[in-house]
Amino acid sequence: MAQNPLKIGYVPEHFSTPLYFAKAHFGLDAELVPFPSGTGHMITSIRSGEIDVGIGLTEGWIAGLGKEDAPGDGGYRLVGTYVKSPLCWAISTGSSRPEITSVESLKGGKIGVSRIGSGSYVMGYVLADQQGWLTPSNSEPFSSTVVLNNFQNLRNAVNSGEADFFMWEHFTSKKYYDSGEIRRVGEIYTPWSSWKIVASTKLVSDDGSTFDRRVQDLFEKLDEGIAHFRANQEEAVKYISTNLDYSEEDAREWLKTVTFVEKTEGVEAKVVEDCVSILQKAGVLEAGKGRQPAAMVASRSS
């Protein structure tokens, strides 16, 4: 019996360009489902069966699987790597918030996040840890965490005062700095490679050693899409600036900063272990509780 095409969740930003190329040029048989609100929303959707595969932020996927209250079998496993370079998170506030002058002035403030467990949420704790705001006696470095679901709500909230700051990818934020809608306070890089591919546990054998053939096909087509992206930068710039709401200049600048993998299948154990270690230090995960790093990854036997 013929299988239905995969439903693949993705964030409709510049990083999605090789995925678009895989479908447009190399016959990827899949329905691409956009999630502008990010990785946290995809976690909910893959667990509910709305999507089969997700391409999202490393820290979001790992935090979702490592939480002590992750439901059942967690709903998904890490199966592949998409972007090798770290992600630059811009730290933003409202354009007329003169009291916010620096990253240091955000201590104890109200952080806006898309969802609990999302990249924007996790990176708040990584920032607090880097700044020395997390201590054994103070595991909550912010006065409140304001859940705002999407990027537009986050921008509105820092201008209304509902939140003091939020973090979002640099180039996606930049046009709103240029327009004066929001103001940049600083930046922080992920201490890990930034994008991973996950598959529903329904598509992975119990021992993680075999994948649904449609996942294998995704790896092959995505590898071709990435190679095409690398070899056809002008086509990438045109697609990003025409379809994804970035200026041509910003698209070209982004291309200088991003490195996609050559082979998408597989996840380095050390990346997961290092990410879990930092998330534990930042108070997002608790040592000795929840799913451990090795149980988060499905890897085919060679």
From TrEMBL:
GO terms for cellular component: periplasmic space. Residues 89-188 form the Ca3427-like PBP domain. It is found in: Periplasm. It comes from the Eukaryota. Keywords: Signal. InterPro entries: Ca3427-like_PBP2. CDD domains: PBP2_Ca3427_like. Belongs to the bacterial solute-binding protein SsuA/TauA family. This is Ca3427-like PBP 2 domain-containing protein.
